[in-house]
Amino acid sequence: MAVHTRVLPVAASAPHPLGRHVEHDSRSRLYDVEARGETRALVPTRWPRISPIFDQHALGSCTGMAMAGWLGTGPHCGDPNMFRENEAVWIYATATKLDAFTGEWPPTDTGSSGVGVVKAARMMGMIRGWTQAFTTEALLQALMTSPVLLGTVWTEGMFNPDPVTGEVKPTGAVAGGHEYLCRGWDGSYLWCDNSWSAAWNPKLGGSFKLSMASWETLRRQEADVVVPYV
């Protein structure tokens, strides 16, 4: 067994909180979504967001926000009040106790990982387990069944989406790491939800688009794709 961890420091100039770190466990290869052998036709798919877009405020709880957002999205949620920011912070706090990084929230805002929050959600009885996608094809296959969690670096240029299209592009220096919910694919773009309130990127109400070329750029920088299931 080998566990690769890396704390992604947040740049002092970052205008919004981040908090995702790299935690890659070699055992995750045993849960490769492609190993299930299920293939579906890739068609444009966007799962409905039932819970509101969250706001992590000043806390580096993006991992918990993404996990709670997954729980608050179709096909497995129908109640907009079932998963809110309080649940997201609760998941984040639990993840900081289970992940591979020193410190816990509270009191220390350590950040966490995609693996950390799915471990927390499983321990809390919110999900039965998870798989992971290690290729873009596997990511798209997973999106045919449910939303997924994306953990990537976040660059300076990504803080400022295109005001006309709502697209973010990974330009500029790395500002830290971020976790966010990916709810779909339209054939050209991944559609993702952020956790900096609906006022961020008003074109898409707190969500954003990510081109497949941009995703490939991020994927090569220690990204991970976690696919929970209930």
3D architecture notes:
The two termini are 26 Å apart. It is globular and about 45 Å long. The protein has five helices and nine strands; from the N terminus they run βββαααβαββββαβ. The protein has a single domain (46-229), classed as Cathepsin B, Chain A, CATH 3.90.70.10. With 230 residues, it is α+β, with helices and mostly antiparallel strands. A hairpin with a 3-residue loop joins strand 6 (174-185) and strand 7. The chain has helices at residues 62-71, 85-98, 114-123, 136-143, 212-219; strands at residues 3-6, 22-25, 45-46, 129-133, 148-155, 174-185, 189-193, 207-211, 224-229. The strands form two sheets. Strands 3, 4, 5, 6, 7, 8 and 9 form a seven-stranded antiparallel beta sheet that branches. It has a two-stranded antiparallel ribbon with strand order 1-2. Helix 1 packs across helix 2 (85-98).
Provide the gyration radius in Å: 16 Å
Approximate shape: globular
Low-pLDDT runs: none
Q: Within the CATH hierarchy, at the fold level, what is the topology?
A: Cathepsin B, Chain A
Count helical runs. 5
- Give me the secondary-structure category: alpha+beta
SSE map:
Elements: E1 3-6, E2 22-25, E3 45-46, H1 62-71, H2 85-98, H3 114-123, E4 129-133, H4 136-143, E5 148-155, E6 174-185, E7 189-193, E8 207-211, H5 212-219, E9 224-229
Antiparallel strand pairs: 1-2, 3-6, 4-9, 5-6, 5-9, 6-7, 7-8
Helix pairs in contact: 1-2, 2-3
